[in-house]
Each structure stands twice: as C-alpha cells, then as structure tokens.
Amino acid sequence: MWDSIIKPTLVLFIVCAVVTGALAYVNGMTKDIILARTEEEQEQYRIQVMNGADRFVKLEEEGLLSDKVAGVYEAYSQDNLIGYVVDVTTKGYGGTINLTVGVNTDGHVTGVIVGDNSETPGLGSKAKEPDFINQFGEVTVNDTLSVVKQGKKSANEIQAISGATITSRAVTDGVQAALDAVKLIMNGVN
C-alpha cells in the first residue's frame, strides 16, 4: 500500500507544491513589471487613436457607463480638450476582446484599436485589419451601429468579416458602448 499508492501520491503532492510555489514567486517578482508594460501599451494605444493629444486625464465615471467600458480618458492638446479615449472590454467568439476607441469633441470616431483577444487566427483576427476597422471612421456618437453581412448601405452599418460574424458584432458592440459613453459625457451626465 505504501509503495503503490501513498508514496507516489506524496511525491506528486510535493512536486506540485514546489512548482506552485515557484510560479507564485515568479508572478510576485514580475507582476509590477507586467502592470507597467500594460499601462505603457495602453498609453500608446491612446496616443494612436487620438492623434495630437499630449496628455490624458482619466475620468471617474463608473456606475453611469456600460459594464463594457473599462475606462474613459479626456484627451488634451496644449490644455484644450480635443476628445475622449475609451477602453472597452467586450466578449467575442474566443473570449474577451479589448478595444481602445478615440472620439473627438465633434463626436466622430478618430480611431479604433483591437488589443488583446483570443479570436480565431485567420478569421476573427481580421478584426484588426484596416478594411474592417476603417468602417468606424465614418460613425458618430449619434449613430446606432448595426452589423450587416452584405450590402452595406449607410455609415452606421458595419460590414461583417466573412466567417467571423460573432467577432464583428463584438467589436461593433464595443465601439457602440464607447460612443454611448462619450455621448453621455458630452451631454453633461457626470
């Protein structure tokens, strides 16, 4: 009994405990570095979607905005408010999709970046390509976005990626959440 069940179980338990402890130690050592790099990446995304901004100020609007909205930043150029950048988390086919959406003070989308996601390579990953993303450059905070599979007729209709309708809807819903958040803020709901 000792050699056949208890001894192998005890050895396996010790190996698992040592490996878990080592992983926890490495995670503790690198957690701050990973957090700093993630914040740097997010700052670069904000700069890319709001060209001309020299600083961003995070707004504290939790509770009033959609649960998809992870953060809202005012974008300034030489102390003049030029727009808003919204971080959005939405659910796609393969899991969560992180988006960064810029909207200028006229209510027009200035840029959309699809960040971390687990969408299917070759299908859902096409959501990052300009053919899909550039469609959002025509929409404003007053639009209600919809996804169409064929025959796009107006600016608020987003042509779905062939074979990745769920991803297309997820990104479109995320951009709509960003537009709704900016519309609320621009209308003075704080």
TrEMBL record:
Its main location: membrane. Coiled coil: none annotated. InterPro entries: FMN-bd, Ion_transpt_RnfG/RsxG. It is found in: Cell membrane. It is an enzyme of class 7 (translocase). Its EC number is 7.-.-.-. SMART domains: FMN_bind. The keyword DNA repair does not apply. Keywords: Cell membrane, Electron transport, Flavoprotein, FMN, Membrane, Phosphoprotein, Translocase, Transmembrane, Transmembrane helix, Transport. It comes from the Bacteria. GO terms for molecular function: electron transfer activity; FMN binding. The modification FMN phosphoryl threonine is found at residue 165. Residues 92-182 form the FMN-binding domain. It is a single-pass membrane protein. Belongs to the RnfG family. Part of a membrane-bound complex that couples electron transfer with translocation of ions across the membrane. The complex is composed of six subunits: RnfA, RnfB, RnfC, RnfD, RnfE and RnfG. This is Ion-translocating oxidoreductase complex subunit G.
